[in-house]
Amino acid sequence: MSENVMHHTSHGIHAIVGASNWARSIRDEIVRVAEHDSSVLITGPSGTGKELVARAICMHSRRREAPLVPVDCAALPGDLFVSQMFGHLKGAFTGAHCSTLGAFRAADGGTIFLDEIGELEPLVQAKLLRVIQERTVVPLGSHQGETVDVRIIAATNRDLQSEVRAGRFREDLFYRLNVISLKTLPLAQRADDIEQLANHFLHRLVIDAGLPLKRLSPGVLNLLRSYSWPGNVRELNNQLERAVVHASEDVLGPESMPELVEAVMAAEPPCTRPTRILPQRRDPSAIQQKGAIAPCRHKTSEEDLHHSGDLAGGSCHWPTMDEVERQHILKTLKKTFFNQCEAAKMLGIDRHALRRRIRKLGLDTSQSRRGRPAMTHRLQK
Predict the structure, then answer these.
(1) Torsion, CA 13, CA 18, CA 19, CA 22, rounded to 10
(2) Is the pLDDT of residue 368 over 60?
(3) Is the pTM of this model over 0.90?
(4) Which of 15, 18, 124, 178 is most buried (most C-beta within 10 Å)?
(5) For the purposes of burial, counting CB atoms within 10 Å of the CB of 207, is it exposed (0-12), middle (13-18) or buried (19 or more)?
(6) In this structure, are residues 72 and 116 in contact, taking their beta carbons and an 8 Å threshold?
C-alpha cells in the first residue's frame, strides 16, 4: 500500500469547529453526503479546510474502515501523472525497479481525494476522465485494465466553471466531478467561529507540540475578529503558534501579535478631520425688505449656529475643549488597542505628552500594566 495512504479514524464532523450558520450547515451536509458514493467537489479559498471536509465525509461513510488516499494534483507534472495515479510495472521505464500500485489502486474499496484538481494539465484531465467513467486503470507498461472501486472527492480553490469557459478545464470532467457540490467560506465571513477556532488551536498546540497552555485576553479576541485573514484558518493557526512560542505570559494580549496590530491599523481608513464651517456670504440682492418673507435655507454656517435658538435657549450641550480632547484620545487608544506609543504617533505628540494629558483628563489607566486599561474595562468597551 502507498505510503500516502491515510486512515481517518480521528476525523469527523466534530473536527469542523465553529458555531456559525456555515459551520452548522456544513456538518449537516457532510452527514447527508457521506451516505452515498457520489463524487463530491469541494470549492473554496486556500486554507479554509477543504481536506478536513473531505476526511469528515470519509469518516461518516460506509468506507470509513478503508483507506483514504490524498493526491496533490498541483505537484503532479504530466510525465509522472500516469505512474503516480495508475501505477506501473517493473521495467516499464528506466529506473522502474519494482511495480507500484498507484493512487487509484491503493484506494480500492476506499476514497481518493484529488486536491487542487484545477491545476491539472489538459492532457492529464483526459486520462483522468476515462478512469472516472470506466472505473478501470491501466498501469504504465501494461495493456490490461484493472477495475477499481473508488469514491472520488475533489477540491479546488479555483472557479471551475470559469475555467471551463476559458478552455482551461474540460467541461465533461467538471460535470463528472461536480455531482455533489460543497463550499467552504473564508474565515473573514465566519467571524463567529474565530474564538472557538482559536481556543481549539491553542488546546491542540498543547497536546501535539507540547507548548505551554495559554489563554486569550478579550483584547486579543477583538484583534482576531478585526483582522481580514487572507490566509484563512491556516493563517490563524500559524499566528497562534507563533504567539505561544514567543509569549512569556500565560495570557495572550494584542502585544503578542504585533504584525496583526499593524495590519489592522493599516487597514483602517484614515481619521477624517473635522471641516471648519465658514460663515456664508450674504447676497446683497437677497436682503429681505421690511414685510417680505425670507426664503428658507439650511442653518449650516457659524453665523446661523450662533443665532440658533437651540444654542441660545441652552437646550443643546456644547462640549468643552477638555471633553472633545478626552473623547478623541479615547477613540485613538481604542483604535490602537490601547498601545500608548502608537496612539501618540497618531496624535502627533510624544508618549510623555500623551501620558500628561491622560493624567490631566482623568483617564483611569491605573488598574493595568504599562498604562493599559484593565482587562475587564477593555471587555466592556
Answers:
(1) -70
(2) no
(3) no
(4) 18
(5) exposed
(6) yes
